[in-house]
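thread: overnight batch results

M.L. [08:02]
morning all. the overnight job finished for the chain we discussed friday. pasting input first so we're all looking at the same thing
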Amino acid sequence: MSLDHDSDQVHPTDEMGAPPAEAATDIYVQRFTVAYDYPVAFTRDLFAATNPVFVRAVTRQDPDKLARIMVLVDEGVAAALPGLTEAVAAYVAAHADRLELVAAPEVIPGGEGCKNDPALVERLQRRVVALGVDRHSVIVAIGGGAVLDLVGYVAATVHRGIRHVRVPTTVLGQNDSGVGVKNGVNAFGQKNLLGSFAPPFAVLNDAAFLDRLDPREKTAGMAEAVKVALIRDGAFFAWLEAEAAALRAHRRAALDRLVRRCAELHMIQIAGGGDPFERGSARPLDYGHWSAHKLELLTDHGLRHGEAVAIGLALDARYSVLAGHLAAGGEERVHALLTALGLPVWHPMLEAPELLRGLGEFREHLGGELTITLLAGIGRGIEVHEMDETLIRDAIAWLKARAA
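M.L. [08:03]
and the structure it wrote out:
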């Protein structure tokens, strides 16, 4: 930390207490940095009593102190795994010398709808306070990306920040949103309008959760892997092409590798991209998302997030070619891979007049300057500050023609 002081001299004030006009101004520039670190674990059967990953992660900063934990479970996950809450309680009991539940694990609504419910946010905040959960306690969220966003927001806003452990249960949660530093809920018709940048205390990825995941959810989560490969890792994109059949069949080894490499690339971008809290306007990890966010809303979330992202990737790949950034044929590879994985590349709402409003909303979310990531090559992104609406419509027509 440093404190810089720029001043010539001290001037007396007049009888009203104000300094004379010629007085020098004292300016103190406060500077400090805060180091963040959190484990991102890849394991299987996280809540088996003999698996030490959870207890070590939760108690890592205070290993000699009993950790008080509050556990919130996505209702969709609880329904798919009826014994999950009991397994969590049994795990804590098996490690009673280091862990303590403040209450029985609580099941909460999941899916994108949970992020549209201000009453649910307030109810959970009140629950945290009522249970005496403080800044040395831990709030554990087990669920999909929407529940992680919601609980992360609650944890970040009570007591100005409570330790938050994420246990993602979807491909999308494990390979993308779970390892990031953002939390938020939807408001006023906009996705993630209210939120915080608050790094998690730990991210614990249990591959066993993916075994029971709905096939559509497994496939939808792969879109973020295609995205990060397109902007950062051409070799990973080529691997996705080679393994598309195995991935579409959700074979365990291929899916595990996809999840891990995608998470690694997201972590590299967050740590090394120079802007983890998005102070600037560039958002390379949002490639394909300007239209995806709007499509989710226009379809009333009939499209899953990953499905909307897949369409956005295909759209912006074709636009990249039309705008002269990407060599012709690159968009064909993107379209072919998405199709091979079983992801959608077309939806009629692409032709809705409201779609182009997504650009304006994206600009506002960025703080006024439009910055869109497009493709300069497979594995290489490029930032632009404007998009031609005529070319966007041409790209939409190209996608429609292939869907016919």
